[in-house]
Amino acid sequence: MDENRLKLGFGLMRLPKFEDGTIDVEQVKKMVDLFIEAGGTYFDTAFAYPGSEEAIRQALVERYPRDSYTLASKLMCSPDMNSEEEAKNEFNISLERTQAGYFDYYLLHAIQRGNYKKYEEFRIWDYVKQLKEKGLVKHYGFSFHGDPELLKELLAQHPDVDFVQLQINYADWENPGVKSKENLEICREHGKKVVVMEPVKGGILADPIPTVKEIFDKADPDASYASWAVRFVASQEGIFKVLSGMSSIAQMENNLSYMKDFRPLNEEEEKVIEAAQEAIDADQSIPCTGCRYCTEGCPMEIPIPDIFAVENRRKGSPEFRTKREYVIVTTGKGKASDCLQCGQCESVCPQHLPIISLLEKCRELED
Ligand code: SF4
Ligand code: SF4
Fold first, then answer.
1. Which ligand is nearest to the CA of 297?
2. Which residue has its alpha carbon closest to ligand 1 atom 3?
3. How many domains does the chain have?
4. What is the pLDDT of residues 311-341, one digit of tens each?
């Protein structure tokens, strides 16, 4: 596996976009150049990231020799998928979109309690092993959002997986819904290398709550909030790569500034992180990362993450402004009160949020 010295991986889920929603490929090219110049090699896309595979073809595959980088992609069995063929064909589409010839890393995407049986039903584990035998995939693994018991089960059933991708960040370290620490320990026990996703929790920790900002500002006013988050995960034992879903040249430059010559957290800095964890535990905000996995299958087209973002901004904001924001995000879409409580969203939420009851609370924004 790619043990290149730069532990940072370039996550391609949140690439820079123009106002019309299309990806700014020229900016992505500059980000790719900066990343490679700093010794980066690991790029992480997925079938399910709109436009990402095509963008990385233009920004990377068509511009650099194939052996100078490693590319990861993922196969997602979405809840509304009806056939094995449809699922398996995602691999061919990903290869076609990227023109990469093969994937260095290939993952079963976002496995958790609500969907893992679908991957078994469609025999995706065997399929990916066959792709590896054919040389179309060099290493295979899975990205995981489930509980430790399920992780143990999967590693026992599939002992030859090469790596596991886990959500790890200081806010979720001991979060009972995510259990970052416990899942990492299980992977270590099974001798599996770990790729980290969401080290900045979908951007939340790059702009954390005021109490956390205060703690970090006091400890080191020059360090970015994201640097604390990324360095925390990169300092853990058994971490192979830390993915950061970068959306701008500025974010790339910032990440490279502390990851190029990576220095693990020292004892004093670990204490600062502990204080930040305590401040987060005391906070009541909804920890939604805005991944939008929940919105795709919602029969009422409720913009769940946008409603949660309005709810989170409610504190300290005048009531009329919050209500206006709520009207803006829900116009032409479903409202919190339209929820049918079907549970589709909760079955796919990687953060295991009790979306139905949270939406009930958000109904107050409609009064
Ligand atoms: S439970 Fe409510 S919000 Fe969730 S998918 Fe069903 S209707 Fe949409
Ligand atoms: S509610 Fe869950 S699935 Fe939906 S955007 Fe937030 S974190 Fe993602």
1. 1
2. 339
3. 2
4. 988 876 778 888 889 999 999 999 999 999 9
